[in-house]
Every structure is written in C-alpha cells, then in structure tokens.
Amino acid sequence: MKQYNTIKTKYPDALLLFRVGDFYETFGEDAIKASKILGIILTHRNNGGDRTELAGFPHHSLNTYLPKLVKAGQRVAICDQLEDPKLTKSIVKRGVTELVTPGVALNDDILNAKTNNFLCAVHFGRKLLGVSFLDISTGEFLVAEGNEEQIDKLLQNLSPNEILVSKANKKEFTELFGTQYHTFFTEDWLFQDDYALETLTKHFKTNSLKGFGVDQLTHGIIASGVVLHYLSETQHRQLQHINTIKRIAEEEYIWMDRFTIKNLELYHSSNSNAVTLLDVIDHTISPMGGRMLKRWLALPLKNIEKIRRRHQVISHLKVDGTLLQKLQTGIKQMGDLERLISKVATGKIHPKEVIQLKNSLEAAIPIKQLTTQSSNEALKLIGDQLHSCDLLRAKIKEMVNEEAPVNVLKGNTIAQGYSEELDELRGLAFSGKEYLDKMLERETELTGISSLKIASNNVFGYYIEVRNTHKDKVPDTWIRKQTLVNAERYITEELKEYEAKILGAEERIQLLEQQLFAQLVVWMQEYIVPVQNNARQIAILDCLCGFTQLAISNHYNEPQLNDSTELEIIGGRHPVIEKQLPLGEAYIANDLVLNRENQQIIMITGPNMSGKSAILRQTALIVLLAQMGSFVPAESAKIGYVDKIFTRVGASDNISMGESTFMVEMNETASILNNLSERSLILLDEIGRGTSTYDGISIAWAISEYLHEHPARAKTLFATHYHELNEMASTFERIKNYNVSVKELKNKVLFLRKLTPGGSEHSFGIHVAKMAGMPQQVIQKANKILKKLEKSHSSEELTDKLHAVQDEMQLSFFNLDDPLLEQIKEEITTLDINTLTPVEALMKLNEIKRLLTKNKKASS
Ligand SMILES: Nc1ncnc2c1ncn2[C@@H]1O[C@H](COP(=O)(O)OP(=O)(O)OP(=O)(O)O)[C@@H](O)[C@H]1O
C-alpha cells in the first residue's frame, strides 16, 4: 500500500490500475468508481486497522475494461510490474507505463473508426484565443486562432474528445463553451510561448515553425505546445507520425456559426434518433474516407476551381460505372491505413496488423493503375500521388507469416526462410516427436518392456511410464519419480538433456521472433510519410466515390458554381426529409431565386406544417453540398459561391435552459447582423415569435429592413407567421413575398407544399390543431375567439400603423445625411470592437453622447 500510495500521489486525477500478480486492482475512491462503471464487485480489506475499498479484474481483461473506463470520461493510469517477480526477493518494482485519457487513445476498442479522436487545447490570449487539435491515432495536428465565436465553431465542428485548459481560465472556458466537453484543467505555467515553441521545435527537429506556415500564430502555438506536452506527460513518446502541423485556413471555407451547424442538423441532432445530413450523404466505405467526409462537411470550400474538380470526378465516375465499381472494390479491401501506420510509429502494431497494412497497400496498386490511366485530371493526380511502397510490401512479405497471430509471443510470426537460426531452432523444437519415438523404440528393445510410454507433465517434465508387471525389468540408471496404482514413472539422463534443449529452443525462438519483429517495425517507420499520404489520397477517392453513389441512388445533379452573387435552384429538395417520407409520398420540389438586384429577401408565409422550414433548410443544404463538392438534390442549381451561412430559428423551436429563450434568439440574431457580407446566405425561421405579437412583428420588421438597407445586401429567406410583414414588399424593392401554398377544402387544409409568389392571408394554426386531433370543443372555441380578435385588431389597422411609423421615422441609418450623424456613423464604423476594452467602449459612448448633447444645445 505504501508503494501504491506513492504512485497514486503522482497521478491524483487519474484512476490508477495497479497490477498485482495476475490482476489489476483499484483502491479507495478509484475502486468505488471502477466498480460502478464496470459493474465489478466492490470488496473491502483491512489495512492495519483502516478499511480500504478494493475492486479488480484479471489482467488479460484489460482490453475489455479499459475502453469502458475511458468512454465514461476517466483518465486511467496503468501501473505495471516492471520486473519479473520471480527474480526479486523484495517488493516488485512498479511504475505507470501509460496514461490513457479520452483524448489520447490508440486502442481500437476506444476509437470510433469513422471519427477522429482529437485531443485539444484552448489558450486564452488577451485579445484572441488559440486552439490546437491532435489525433494521436492518425497523426493529424491542426492549429488555429480567432475570437470566441471562431473557436466555438471549431470545437463544434471537430468535436474533440478532451480539451486542455489552464486552471486560471476554468470559469471563462465553461462560460463561453459550456460543459459538454471532457475538460482537463492543467497547470497555468504550461501556457507559455517560449516553452511551447521549444516543445514544438524539439519535436519537429526544426529551428522555427516557419516551414509549417504557423509561426505567426502566437496563441495557437501555445495551445499546440500544451497538447504535445500532454502527450509526453501521458507517457506517449514515440510520435514520429506527427510530422507536420497545419493551420486551419478558415478564410478558405464557408463560415457557419454554431447555431447554424446545430439548426441544419449536419452531424448532430437534438433528438438522438433523428437522421442527420451526414447519415444521408455518407456512402464512404473506408474509415479514413469516413473521417475525411466529416472534415469536408465541417469545412465546405469557397474556391470554385477546387469545387469544380470534385464535381468533375463525380461526373466522370457516374458515366463510367465499371471504374467506380473497381475503385470501390479496391477501397473495400483496405484497412485503416492511417491508424495502422500510426501504430508503427508508436510501436504498438501487432503482427496481424502488419499483414493488414501490407494487404491494404497491395489493394492500392490496382487503384493506382486505374486512376493514373484515367482521362480525368483529378483522378490522375490521385493516382500519381499514390506510392506503391514496393520495398515495404516486399519486406513484410519476406519477413512475416501471412497467418501471423495477434500476439508475437504466440509464435509463428516470422516467416520460414527469413532467419537461418530461427529455422534451425524451430526444427529442433518441432522435430521433438520424431526424436521421442526413436528413443521409445530403442528403450523398448533394450529393456524388452513392450508397454513403455513417454509423456510429460507440468510437475517433473518428460518421463517414461512402466506398468507394474514389467517393474523388475527397469534398468538401475532410471530414476523413479512417481508411483501410480498400476504403473511407475521414471526419468532418465537422456530425457532431461532433451528437455533442456527443447525448452531452451522454445525460449530462444520466442526471443528471436520478438527481436526480429521489433526490428521490422523500426525499419517500417521510414514509410510513415508515404503511407500517410496514401491514406489521404484513398480518403479523398473514397469520398468522391461515395458522392457518386449518393448522386446515383438519390438522383442528385451537378450544380454550376460561379462567382456571381446569384442563387437559382430549380426543383430543389430537402436531402434528409425526402428520405424520411412515408412510402408512396413524394417530396414536392421547389424553385427558388435569390439575388442582390431585385430579389434579395424572400418573405415566406404559410400555415404551420406547410413546409416553410423545409424550404429554408434545403436551400442552405443544397449550397453546402455543392460547395463540399457533392452533387445536389435539385434538377439544376446555379450557385454564386457563398462565404457565410447563417440560420436562426425562433425561440419556441429552440428551447434552451436558463437564459430567456427570447434573449437567446435576439443574441443569436444580433451576431448575424454584425457579420454580414455580400455573399452571405441568411435563413431566419420565425424570428420574433418568442415574444408578444406586436413585439415580434416590430422586431421582425426592423431586422428585415436593416438587412434590406445594409450595403452587403445579403440574400435572405425569412419564414414567418406574421402575414403583416407582407406589407414590406410594397415599400422595399428587394423584398418579395412568397407563400407555401395550401388548399382549403371545406374547413380542411390540403398542403400543396409549392412555393408560390404572393403573400398569404392568415395562419391556419387552428386547422393544424384540428389535424392533430384536438377535441372538437377546443377547435370550435378557438375559431370563435379568432373571429372576435380579428374584428377588434384588424391586421389592416396594424399594417396601416406600421406604414405610419415607417414614414415618420425613416429608420434607415444609412440614408441619414445630417453631418453630425455622419460623423458619429464614421466614429462607430471605424471602431475595432475586437481591440476595445469595456472601459474604452464606455468612454467612446460618453464621447458620442457629448457630441449629441452639444449639438442639441447649439440648435436650441
Ligand atoms: N416539399 C415537401 N414535400 C413533402 N413533404 C414536405 C415538404 N416540405 C415539408 N414537408 C413535410 O412537412 C413537414 C413540416 O414541414 P416544415 O417543418 O417545413 O413546416 P413549417 O411550415 O416550417 O411548419 P411550422 O410553421 O409549424 O414550423 C415536414 O416535416 C415534412 O414531413
């Protein structure tokens, strides 16, 4: 226990698995936790009067229990016996050989094949935050920096399994990013620029980080340094596969904030059973392809050329079905190249996996041939970049047995014919039977005993057994070892010698196989870079083949990307909803045009359940799919590439805890209005409905007007129940009204789901209530109340009032030509909010106030 306690104090935050003989034991608090998580029995033992809890499991079950502990969010320190207990008289030496945490895992049972397992660190700088992501199982190492929103978005997109934050920023981190992540709060001193730079340059064996193009990211570098430091702290020191660090070049990708990622249900859904976009579009067949697709979804491109290249490959493969099939057959035969080669680097690969690696590389050969011969440039490029790894494959073939076991100690790993010494020893060990048969024959003849038998047991090894009837014929040189009822067992000098030779040979074989295998693994490390590159090319190819499959099976078409700012979708569909409809029900396709000239904002009205949200979301998803490089669920689509997608859903659809839901809605919307660009696509779904009708209409009106008047003229779809907003179209030239049509049949509503020009008169909420099976009395009463209300608050009255306000206020900020207001506008627009402290902001406000009051006094 003294030894245990000394080791435990070094790992206070981890659950310590303490090897005792054939068991891993846990004590005290750890035992209570382990027994709960693993469902193993909790016992007690008295320890010099103190009662200690105890729970353990057999050491060979580590692979079963460890993943459960890590998946439950535990950091697990594995403490092993560092010497052979037989060779020591005192207490056996023990030490922690690995610290497994949710973000640092190499074990296949912990990892999810199609998902990266990122360890992340977030550094809080004075103005910016730095972030770094590292997947030790694949070798990817990424870095970025930005404001809270940008970091938040990256965290959402890359879903790290563990985040390291300095203790000093614990509160700040939880306030900004919530509590949904596994976090580990580390010592503050680690977050230092010089220490980080030293850690990184030492690892990469470079003088600076210039070569990686990340030397300017001071905060990102600090975060990256912390991540690398953590790896050594968790006893991971063989990291040759982490050979580069890449900046996440956010400016190259569509910007989506976290609300948008959530609202569009790209890869998570608030309802865990719901189907996400990823579920529908993922037709990849290799683990690395699956991981790549997630990355593409998180980071859709803006570069038209790059996007087109992906589309061209899909067009090509769609026509050449045989090529597609052949490529996919090849990809299917591959293991997880990326993770296999990482295991080579970390020295954790086992013989069977080496064979898998070889077979995977072999499967790449026909793929290389097929693609290099292709007339498609992008496919040809993939082929050219695939490395055939001839030497590596040949060496594995020569050295490792095709049927090699998982555990090298099981023997038969090194192929026959590779090592003369090994072959000789094997001959000796395996020719034993023949040797014993000969010995038996000889002794039978010499002694004249016909029923002699040679066998072995664990107690005294090889023996000769003589039945009692022949006892008296036994030579004097034999030594009696055991007496049975009907027989006696003897050993002889020759048998003992033979035994020693065999046992020696077996031990030597084991040692030699281990040595040779270890040498091979070290030799294989030369191939880390080419194999990693192959994995990347195969991942890209897998994604593109998957997109082709998707286009074929779901009838997607090629979108036309251009650098205009216009969006024209003909016959567009929602990729997820169309797959969910009951059998026989067809999804109704819709056309939609948005541009900055005459149709910038579309107000979509229509009853509940008519399909407003579906149109909004499908528009964003079609753009997103197109810019990921996929075909789209539409007859045709012309897309002026988009650089930001914002979506906001009215509060009652998006109930969040704690903060007022309306407040949340307004916060979210404010951040859109502050980040508009000419290429933004904005989807507002029922914004304003979280408050009273008048409040809601006023806010929705003001937001739409702001968007209309803003010089960016961002393309916007606004779904709303407030048909009063239809009035805006008469004043604002780029606002157009549409409705999702329904047909009224004798008090019933038939959803036509067609987007048609023009506004709609009322909301049909009561019809939907009726459809939902609300009792008849409730429906009748609601109808009566509605009629009364409509009489007393006619919506015409309301819209007249709105017009009056409009004339009076000339709300538009941008049309004001008062020189003082011009000056204030100038002041405000040139402010750099990012660098402003709260006090400076107050002072600025005070200054503006003074300007205004001075002006007022002067004019009075
Ligand atoms: N074009 C379509 N073709 C077929 N079914 C559709 C279509 N659009 C929507 N639906 C179906 O109608 C349901 C309701 O659509 P949606 O949520 O878009 O309505 P909504 O008008 O936004 O309703 P609410 O105002 O109540 O939020 C969808 O879940 C889907 O099942």
UniProtKB/TrEMBL annotation:
The keyword DNA damage applies. It holds the Pfam family MutS_II. The keyword Magnesium does not apply. Coiled coil: none annotated. Keywords: ATP-binding, DNA damage, DNA repair, DNA-binding, Nucleotide-binding. Residues 680-696 form the DNA mismatch repair proteins mutS family domain. SMART domains: MUTSac, MUTSd. ATP binds at G606, P607, N608, M609, S610, G611, K612, S613. Belongs to the DNA mismatch repair MutS family. This protein is involved in the repair of mismatches in DNA. It is possible that it carries out the mismatch recognition step. This protein has a weak ATPase activity. This is DNA mismatch repair protein MutS.
